[in-house]
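Dear colleagues,

For the upcoming journal club I promised to circulate an example of a predicted protein-ligand complex. I picked one with NAP because it came up in last month's discussion. The inputs are reproduced below in full, followed by the predicted structure.
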Amino acid sequence: MTTVLITGANRGLGLEFVRQYQNDGAEVIACCRNPETAEELKRLATSSHGRTTLYQMDVSKPKEILSVSKELNDCSIDYLINNAGILGTKFEEPMKGAFGSVDYESWEETLRVNVLGPFRVCEAFVNQVSQSQNRLIVFISTHMSSITSLTEGGFYPYRSSKAALNLLVKGLSIDLKEHDIRTLSFHPGWVKTDMGTNAAPIEIDDSISGMRKVISEYTPPKTGEFINYDGTPYPW
Ligand SMILES: NC(=O)c1ccc[n+]([C@@H]2O[C@H](COP(=O)([O-])OP(=O)(O)OC[C@H]3O[C@@H](n4cnc5c(N)ncnc54)[C@H](OP(=O)(O)O)[C@@H]3O)[C@@H](O)[C@H]2O)c1
């Protein structure tokens, strides 16, 4: 049976990853900051007959990451999906991410959650991934990180965090070869979630089914690439 670990599983893209992998028969390790209040996720887990389990994991809290990893010591994880992320600023408040008025505290928090968090999760779960059949670590990045296609400024905290994340994806594709682990970075599309807002043109289920198709076809020796949710390559 395929086992998938998802961070930020309580809403948005993470919740839909849980729903679709669960419907597909996978075993899902759903991690989020507050399982107690994650009503929709709890409903999904209840309907899964024990295949979806909830774990408390704030990716900016090393102790919580290590504690889940310890609890799942003997588990093998086919797909580790680093989905949890923050924008750092709101789309309605773009000036907080603009040159001259950046909120530095929020920038530091954005780096902790979007960069250090996924890296820590990778370090903590490398053994569980290396024991699995598929051995793939997925990172949810964004087109806003792309240096090649950048045509406007602003959103420095978010853009810089996800550009750094992409660097990790490429670097880890080299470092983790010795564990036979591969990596993949996604632009999920501009999607209707709390972060993407209702103005986004793409529905959550389309983004997730697109990424799941890419993941299922991302077989060895493929590794270390940046890909759009529809399968087309994205420029770094
Ligand atoms: N939606 C888009 O258009 C879009 C586009 C490009 C990239 N992305 C990326 O896709 C991923 C998911 O975004 P989304 O649209 O689903 O956003 P969302 O609706 O705002 O959901 C964000 C998720 O991340 C979790 N999270 C935030 N900080 C966390 C932390 N410290 N530890 C653990 N979980 C944390 C949230 O949990 P809480 O409920 O506890 O806050 C929530 O589950 C993000 O990495 C985002 O950057 C989204």
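Two points we might discuss: The mean pLDDT is 95. Residues 7-8, 10-14, 32-34, 58-60, 83-86, 113, 140, 142, 188, 190-191, 193-196, 200 surround NAP (CB under 6 Å).

See you all on Thursday,
B. R.
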